[in-house]
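Notes from hallway chat w/ T.B., transcribed later so I don't forget. T.B. wanted the structure written out for a chain they're using in a teaching module, and asked if we could keep both sequence and structure tokens in one place. Agreed to drop them here.
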Amino acid sequence: MTELTDFSKLCVHTQTTKPWSIEECIAHFSKSGVRGISIWRHLLEGKDLKKIKTLLEINKMEPVSLVRGGFFPSVESHQRELALQDNRLAIDQAAALGAPLVVLVCGADARQDLKVSRRQIQDGINQLIPYAKNMGVKLAIEPLHPMYAGDKSAVVSLEQANDMCESIASPIVGVAIDVYHLWWDNNLKNEIFRCGKNKNIFAFHVCDWRVPTIDFLTDRGLMGEGCIPIKQIRKWIEEAGFEGYNEVEVFSERLWAQDQKLYLEDIKKSYINHT
């Protein structure tokens, strides 16, 4: 495993510094020496994407991914069609910004069996492939923690994501591996190496699991504040052939309440020491 001594592979999600606008994220990340940025779509509402792309270029920021597409399943066919339309919009936005990837939080519908939701997810992705390929944008399935199976994602393990990717069998469909969602899995190492064999690790997200956790959505920790073996997982990721950014994705009411400039410096310290 390569020891981290600089920030050349550090990417920060805009949701990590939630109080900032997209313009503030770009300016402050760049000034702090962070070159990778993963952009959450809600920050683009009402924005001129050409101007945002220009800001990225002026500040020498690399858009690593656009977050998020997905949410395919529904018992209602018109809702599934609306999801496809929104995913095409996400692909358009990614292409306009020069982001190579849309991260898919796949969705679920508690009114139907999980297997049905997974079929709808795979069907939805298959329908998007020609459009995404034409736009030069990849799609990354992000398996979530099983606690989100009822509403946010019917894909709740890396094994399920790998099964789906292998069934789809497209070079533009891969996985986003988030340690917060997958660290508990006893089979994680094998599934990461399975990804490596398929060359489909498209993204790697890091944060930490605090003990105790006050809120399972908005009480994530910075790397080193919890119990996730982040360095070990990164070692496996790199052994599997991944050479991309380490993306810091932290949802935390506690950290959002802090001075975000000071918080960004803490992100950098925890990145070097605990990632």
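Follow-up for T.B.: The longest strand covers residues 62-70. Might be a good example for the class.
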